[in-house]
Structure formats: structure tokens, C-alpha cells
Design goal:
This protein is an alpha/beta fold and 568 residues long. The protein is 48% helix and 15% strand. The protein has 23 helices and 17 strands. Strands 1-8-7-3-4-5-6-2 form an eight-stranded mixed sheet. It has an eight-stranded parallel beta barrel with strand order 10-11-12-13-14-15-16-17, surrounded by six helices.
Length: 568
């Protein structure tokens, strides 16, 4: 058989060649069975719910921060009373539990698909994944991809739990027929440093188990059964990548400094104290975003002040004297916590989330702020408030922080003399008011994920709009430029903790716009360090200024991509 070359969308950087593992996901097949009594079937169903939840909890315990957020959404879906009511009603009608689950999940998914709300429509994949897991629990079957040897996984698509459950020590790469650059699979592959290509039409029918597959996550090329010449080309590219990885390890301690002497701090995003330690090992110069949600999700009650204090203190100690920016609770939007009893909202990303929630739950906010301040004596702490829309928000948050400090001092509990207080700039109103906000805080950290979706009115989780979600859109660049200028005029520094900072094209433009710190997944640090060290700041500034005058993201990328190709 001669080689076959397919084209998909480059999703996660890297080059690999290896045997295919073809995953043809479908409903868990079960033999037809007669229903027992409704009471017996209900008991089977409830036991299956318990087993499915235990499986998700076990996955979550060994997952990283991004994966835990995805799994939390599945756990919430598993607890959804509407879904339970549909299943139990079907069982009481005399159906076996397996059939009831399938019928109910499809009915629930169809209902979600009919809604106008894009976010809720996107939950259909979660519903079907949960249904599949429940049926498997009822029948004693295993779901997901089980690798027994190193392989490139080829699939129509991968459900979030499928991707999270993969053995990363055996996963060489991922190729899917569906999916997009913002899918869960893509985001996870990028953070793990696993090459991935999505939207590769026809790959599932063309590939077979054990077939040699070469893929390039930088170009979107997928080669099935590569010929000798192609194999040599890929093996040479892999050898170059290995040499580069060795150089990266050797250069991990080098500063991210441009040839003309401009220093940029490279930090890491983390979701737990353990991830802080891992980031330091990978050469991070600090933590630009520690998501405190890891303490609140996957449990039945809110964490105590002592639990939070111990976790924050551990994170600060693990940072070895580097700055750790801890974001206060950012629940809401795509993250929910059942025990908080939050009302369902038509537009959750525009609703009661982050500091808005904290203002409505002052006891929750005070507990977290006290824990953070107590931990401040263990390292270099920076506290960051998310979803600030204007001066009223930042002043109210600072007032709450001052109250927490006064209460600790009154109790004789030590607090560090110095710690930084900053805000996330992720709402356009905050960017436009940056001049005023800069007088109130020590730093800005631009959350580009939300800033892009709010500026462009594009749901970043909607695959139908994936091509419209453009971090390098001139409108976004202009807002970032305004934020940086305002901050620097006030003598304050600016970081970026969204995904844009870990993209080569994004990092290059952010360097040119004068951003002082870039925070990203630890796996992305080496490439961005190389980019900064090979790019004169003056060159980046000139490029960024040209891009600010353009009208479309396509025009921006047309200028940026040739520069990146020259730098390798």
C-alpha cells in the first residue's frame, strides 16, 4: 500500500511517527435483557451512578488543573436532577436501566441542542459521555481508550473523559476527524506537549490498527503508511526536536531576555501546589496564575480557612521564592459548585461569577482572603481578583481584603508586610478604564481567553464559531496595547495569563506590545523562551505597531507567520 497524505488543522505542536491505535467510539453494546422490577432497576441505576462518580473522582485525583475543570463539569452533569428524573421515569415505566439511561440522555441532549444558548448546547457532548459511562457501569464494561503500547490515537473525536483517561506515557500523538483548535482534546494535548491534528477528514476510514502514522502538529499533515523517504524526513524532524528538547533542558535556567536586553518574565499557570513544584522544575520564573478553584470543586462543602491556608502555604513554599499569583475564587460561567446553590442563568458567562459571586457571599470571600493573608508569610504572594469590570469592583475587593487583614491582626495572626494586589483584565470595560484602575492596584494580568470572547462576542467553547475566536484580532491587540500603556504610565507591570501568551504568534505580538510577563502551561515555556531570546525587542515592537493598524486577524497573521518561520 502506498502512503496516503491527509490534511487537517494543526492543533498541538510537535512531530511524531508511530503505530496507529484506531478508536471507533460508540455506545456501549449490551445484550437485550428483560427489566426486573422497577425498584430493582432503580437500585441498579443508583449503584451505577455511584460507580460512575467514583470513576470520575479517581480520574480527577490524577489529573492536572485543566482536566479537573472538565471532569467537574461531567460530575455536575451526573448529579443533574433533570437527567435523573428522566431516567427514573423511564424505569418506572418498566424499562431496563440501560435502556432508560440511553433514552433519557438522548432526550436530554436533544433538548439542550434545541436551545438558543450556545453554552448549553455545548453540554450535549457531556450528557452523552455521562450516559455512555452510566451504561458501562451498569454492565461492568470499561469505556475509553486503553493503550497497551506506545501509539498514535486515531478517532472520529475524543470525549473529554477519553482524553483525560489516556496513559500519557504511551500516547505518542492524536489525530481526529472532528474537533477544533479550542476543543478539550486540543487544549489538553497542547498543555501535555503531545502532537495533535484535528479535523483530518477521512482518517478514520483510511487508518487501521498498527498502521504506521506520521503527523505534524505544526502543519496539520497526517501521513498514513509513510514511504521510506517520508519516514526519513519525519525521523530527521524528530531527531531535531529531541536535540532541541535537550537544549531546552540545558537552557531552562536562562532568562527570557531579547538580544537587545529587554527582559520578560516567563511564568506558569497552575492548578494545585504540586503543579507549582512541577512548573519550577520546568524553568518557570514564577506562577502567573494559580487557580484557587481546585480547593472548591469535587467536594460537598466549601473548604475551611485552615484547608485553604495549608494549600496556599504549600504553593508558596514550592515556588522557591518566586512570585505566586493566586486568583481568588472564579466560580460561575463554565464552572459550577453544587453546594453553593447557584441559580441557573441564561448567560452564565455574563452572570454571577468570580468577584460578583464573592461579593454576594462575603463569608466565603472573607474565609479565602484570611487564608491567603495567613499564607503570605511563606513566600512571595500576589493576590488577584478576577472579573473586575470597573473601579467599584476593585475598590470593593480591596476593602474586603483590608477587612480580612484587620481581623487577623486583631487575633495576633502574622501577615507579611508586603504582598502584591492585582486584577485580571478580561472585560473590555476594564481595558478601557485601565488608566484609572492602574492607580488602584500593583499589577494587571490580562486574561486573554475571556477578553477575546467578550470583545468579539464569540463563545470560546462553541466549535461552530471556532474560526471567529481570534486572539490576534486587531481589536484585541488594541485593547491590550491600551492596557499596557496605561499600566506603564502609572509605573505598574502587566502580565498575560491566557492561552495567547503560550502561542508563538501571540507571544511575539505581546512582546512587541511591551507585556512584562507571560504565563502559560509549563510544557510551552521552552518554545516561548527561545522565541524571546531570538527576537530583538525593537523588531517585535515594529511588528506589533504595524499589526495595530490592520483591520483583520488574517492580515495580522500574514505579517506574523513569516517572521515565526524565519525563527524556526
Amino acid at each position: 500500500m502506498s502512503e496516503r497524505i491527509l490534511r487537517g488543522v494543526a492543533a498541538a505542536s510537535g512531530v511524531v511517527i508511530g503505530p496507529a491505535f484506531v478508536y471507533r467510539e460508540g455506545q456501549v453494546e449490551t445484550a437485550a435483557r428483560q427489566a426486573a422490577s422497577p425498584d430493582e432497576e432503580l437500585e441498579r441505576y443508583r449503584d451505577a451512578c455511584g460507580r460512575a462518580e467514583a470513576e470520575l473522582t479517581a480520574l480527577s485525583e490524577r489529573a492536572d488543573a485543566q482536566a479537573r475543570e472538565i471532569l467537574a463539569a461531567h460530575q455536575l452533569m451526573l448529579q443533574d436532577p433533570e437527567l435523573h428524573n428522566l431516567v427514573e421515569a423511564a424505569i418506572r415505566e418498566g424499562r431496563p436501566a440501560e435502556e432508560a439511561v440511553r433514552t433519557a440522555t438522548e432526550q436530554f441532549a436533544a433538548m439542550l441542542e434545541s436551545l438558543d444558548d450556545a453554552y448549553l448546547r455545548e453540554r450535549t457532548a457531556d450528557v452523552r459521555d455521562v450516559g455512555r459511562r452510566l451504561v458501562a457501569a451498569l454492565t461492568g464494561r470499561t469505556v475509553g481508550v486503553v493503550l497497551t503500547q506506545p501509539a498514535v490515537v486515531v478517532a472520529r473525536d475524543l470525549a473529554p473523559t477519553d482524553t483525560i483517561g489516556l496513559d500519557r506515557s504511551l500516547l505518542l500523538g492524536i489525530v481526529t476527524e472532528q474537533g477544533g483548535p479550542t476543543s478539550h482534546t486540543t487544549i489538553l494535548a497542547r498543555s501535555w506537549g503531545i502532537p495533535a491534528v484535528v479535523a483530518a477528514a477521512g482518517v478514520l476510514d483510511a487508518a487501521s490498527d498498527g498502521m504506521s502514522v506520521a503527523l505534524n502538529g505544526d502543519t496539520g499533515e497526517v501521513v498514513l503508511d509513510p514511504e521510506e523517504e517520508t519516514r526519513r524526513r519525519y525521523e530527521a524532524a524528530i531527531a531535531v526536536a529531541r536535540e532541541q528538547a535537550e537544549r531546552d533542558r540545558a537552557e531552562a535556567s536562562l532568562p527570557a531576555e531579547t538580544p537587545d536586553g529587554v527582559r520578560v518574565e516567563l511564568a506558569a499557570n497552575a492548578g494545585s501546589p504540586g503543579e507549582v513544584a512541577f512548573a519550577m522544575e520546568k524553568g518557570a520564573e514564577g506562577v502567573g496564575l494559580l487557580r484557587s478553584e481546585f480547593l472548591f470543586m469535587g467536594r460537598d462543602t466549601a473548604p475551611t480557612e485552615e484547608e485553604q491556608y495549608q494549600a496556599y502555604a504549600e504553593a508558596l513554599r514550592n515556588a522557591r521564592g518566586h512570585r505566586v499569583i493566586i486568583r481568588t475564587l472564579d466560580i460561575g460561567g463554565d464552572k459550577d459548585v453544587p453546594y453553593l446553590g447557584l441559580a441557573k442563568e441564561e448567560n452564565p458567562f455574563l452572570g454571577v461569577r468570580a468577584v460578583r459571586l464573592c461579593f454576594r457571599r462575603p463569608e466565603l470571600f472573607q474565609t479565602q482572603l484570611r487564608a491567603l493573608l495567613r499564607a503570605s508569610v511563606h513566600g512571595r504572594l500576589a493576590i488577584m481578583f478576577p472579573m473586575v469590570s470597573g473601579l467599584a469592583d476593585v475598590r470593593r475587593a480591596k476593602k474586603a481584603l483590608a477587612e480580612a487583614r484587620r481581623s487577623l491582626e486583631a487575633e495576633g495572626i502574622p501577615v507579611a508586610d508586603q504582598y502584591e494586589v492585582g486584577i485580571m483584565v478580561e472585560i473590555p470595560s476594564a481595558a478601557l478604564l485601565a488608566e484609572h484602575l492602574a492607580r488602584e492596584v500593583d499589577f494587571f494580568s490580562i486574561g486573554t481567553n475571556d477578553l477575546v470572547q467578550y470583545t468579539l462576542a464569540v463563545d470560546r467553547g462553541n466549535p461552530e464559531l471556532a474560526e471567529m475566536y481570534q486572539p490576534c484580532h486587531p481589536a484585541v491587540l488594541r485593547l491590550i496595547d491600551q492596557v499596557v500603556r496605561a499600566a506603564h504610565a502609572a509605573g505598574k507591570w502587566v502580565g498575560v495569563c491566557g492561552e495567547m501568551g503560550g502561542l508563538p504568534e501571540g507571544a511575539l505580538l505581546l512582546l512587541g506590545l511591551g507585556v512584562d510577563e507571560l504565563s502559560m502551561s509549563p510544557a510551552l515555556l521552552p518554545r516561548i523562551r527561545r522565541l524571546v531570546r531570538s527576537t530583538p525587542a525593537e523588531e517585535a515592537r515594529s511588528l506589533a505597531q504595524k499589526c495595530l493598524g490592520l483591520g483583520t486577524p488574517e492580515e495580522v497573521l500574514a505579517l506574523v507567520e513569516p517572521v515565526l518561520r524565519q525563527k524556526g
